[in-house]
Amino acid sequence: MSTIVITGASGEIGHSLIEAFHAIGGNRLIALDLNPLPDDLRAMVDESITADVASPAAVEQLEKFEVDEVYHLAALLSTSAERNPELAHHVNVNGTLGLLSMARRIGTKRGTPVKFLFPSTIAVYGLPSVDQKRVAGAITEDQYLQPTTMYGINKLYCEQVGAYMSDRYGQLSESAGTSGLDFRALRFPGLISATTVPSGGTSDYAPEMIHAAAQGKPYACFVRPDTQIPFMAMPDGVKALLALAQAPLQSLTRRTYNIGAFAPSAEAIAEYVCRAFPNAEVTYAPHAKRQAIVDSWCADVNDQAARADWGWTPDYDMNRAFEEYLVPTISSVYA
Ligand code: AKB
């Protein structure tokens, strides 16, 4: 039995990850969130802590457990972070540093590293122009790392701090090289869940469009029809987190991986939505600042490293995501 900490537990990924762990069974789940968990999630975890992830009190409560794995999902996403950059830095950076240090202390004391799974993002990329984005196509992990948002900057920095604390922590000290931490990060594309609606992100136009159509509501999309970024169905996001956690450390050639599934334009998403929900009404009302954020993100990702190192392959392309996951599940949610 492993003791698993999930922060940001009632967020979109948290919801699906807790359901997945509950279905697998046999682990002790410790959930942490700023707000009390909804009853359905509360029933699936062993402990539920309500605390600010960046507070010493949160770390103190978590450190009482013999933690084996941390899934640190709590974060302010790109749109929320631009509305309150200092708060974003506090939650996204200080919150992560506190948990990394805690995990390292627990792992060092025990003599086996704590695995730390970190959802990073395509927001770490900063393409200089829409033309350059079109030419660049699917980019690798090491290209265009000039994020334009507080969220992207926070995530890129935390990827590097996580790798540092795993591989080179206190490199001039006696204990250098005896790290108790095994940090692994995934750069998620926009995630689309059939059961929850995101808030505070800038890739939110895709899930918002689908959920609005399923409820018979009109939707004004806040980006241009030609806007392209990568997306993924939520079950694949959870599958990727679990697969990266399971991968033998010696097979990993890097600590941060791109993962891709499909990369449609907003117009292509609208076409799928209108086919699935013939009464859907989608119009376009681009928001200049949110548009600029999405324009700076890559059109697609090259995920060859994840495929080669730990066998990443998505179950859902866009057709299958709509036909077998999104449309049937969302329709039943709003039935
Ligand atoms: C956001 O829009 O901020 C997130 C992301 C792409 O990381 N969904």
Characteristic terms for this protein:
two-stranded parallel ribbon, 335 residues
Offer a concise description of the structure.
With 335 residues, the chain is α/β, with parallel strands linked by helices. It has helices at residues 12-24, 39-42, 56-62, 78-83, 85-110, 130-136, 150-167, 205-214, 234-246, 266-276, 288-296, 304-310, 318-334; strands at residues 3-7, 28-33, 47-50, 69-72, 114-121, 138-139, 181-188, 190-192, 219-221, 231-233, 256-258, 282-284, 300-301. Helix content is 44%, strand content 16%.
Descriptive overview:
With 335 residues, this protein is of the alpha/beta class. The chain has a single domain (75-334), classed as 3-Layer(aba) Sandwich (Rossmann fold). Helix content is 44%, strand content 16%. It has 13 helices and 13 strands. The strands form 4 sheets. Strands 3-2-1-4-5-7-11 form a 7-stranded parallel β-sheet, sandwiched between helices. Strands 6-13 form a two-stranded parallel ribbon. Strand 1 (3-7), helix 1 (12-24) and strand 2 form a beta-alpha-beta unit. The longest helix is centred in the first third of the chain and has 26 residues, at 85-110. The two termini are 38 Å apart. The model has no long low-confidence stretch (mean pLDDT 97). Bound molecules: 2-amino-3-ketobutyric acid (AKB). The site of 2-amino-3-ketobutyric acid (AKB) has 11 residues, from loops.
